[in-house]
Amino acid sequence: MSRVRLPLAALLIAAGVFFADCSAAQGYPPSVKDLVARTRAQIRTIDMARFKSALDKHEAGLVVDVREPEEYASGHVPGAINIPRGVIELSIWPYVGFPDSTDLGKRITLYCASGTRCILATKSLQDLGFTNAVAVDMRIADWAKAGYPLVME
Q1: Number of neighbouring beta carbons within 10 Å of residue 84
Q2: pTM of the entire structure?
């Protein structure tokens, strides 16, 4: 059963995920950093404040957490669905009306632990013809630190 827990617990879990992600990222070659920078320039991004505002106004559309299932279960934004970045091209379709009335203009807001995987996933959706996909440029640990809710499973 899903439930919203205290922000302190969310912060501790999100911080653990964030620091695990950071230690792995340090071992990547510069070509990965360059790829992400080039990709960021080709997509639309929003910051955490705009994301929170869009959520509050029910304007974020389909919210997709592109982290792995265990990361998602450790704390995700309320209302977000989980489609890992590695399968987004294959798994997004039921959420956009395929096969009866596919909506490539549907608002899709993607986030992850550090803002990197969602950039790459947003580009993949854009390459598939989606015209209203946006990546959230935030760290999930900062979301928790701001006191915003996380759902734990």
Answers
A1: 18
A2: 0.84
